[in-house]
Amino acid sequence: VAVLRRRHRSVTDVPVLLRYDNESDVLYVKRAGATIRTSREAAHDGGLIVNLDAASAIVGVQLLAASEMPAALWRNHPDRSALPDDIARTIDAWLDARPPRAQDRAMREM
Asked: Quick count: other Cβ atoms within 10 Å of Cβ 69?
C-alpha cells in the first residue's frame, strides 16, 4: 500500500496532517491532536466526508476518489467554502503537487 504523508501548518498553528492511501484512493486530512466524534457526507458531494469534533467543528475530511478530483474543479467546489481555511488549503496543496492528469489539463484549456 503506497501511502503519502505530509504535514502542513494551519492558520491556528496546529499542524494539519495529510495522508493519501493509493490503494483506496482516499485523501485523509486532519488537524493534529483532533478527536473525531462523528463523520458525515458534505452537503453537496457524497465524495467528501467531513469529520467533526465534540463541538461539531470540522477538524478533518476524507476526499474519496482523490486522484480523480481536478484541481480546478476543487477550487470552485461548493463544499470547499464550508471547510476551515487550513484544511481547504492543505487539500489545494496536495492537488497542486500531483502530476497533472489529462482531466486537469483539459479543464485548464477550457
From this structure: 24
Please give the full DSSP string across 37-97, using - where no structure is assigned: -EEEE-SS-TTEEEEE-TT--EEEEEEETGGG--HHHHHT-TTGGGS-HHHHHHHHHHHHH
Is 29 within 8 Å of 17 (Cβ atoms)? yes
According to DSSP, the β-strands at 3-9 and 15-21 are: antiparallel
Three-state DSSP state, 105: helix
Interval 90-102: pLDDT, tens: 999 999 888 665 4
SS3 25: coil
pLDDT tens profile 1-57: 444 444 444 445 789 999 999 899 999 999 999 999 999 998 887 789 999 999 999
In whole angstroms, what separates CA 49 from the centre of its chain? Answer: 9
pTM reported for the whole predicted model: 0.77
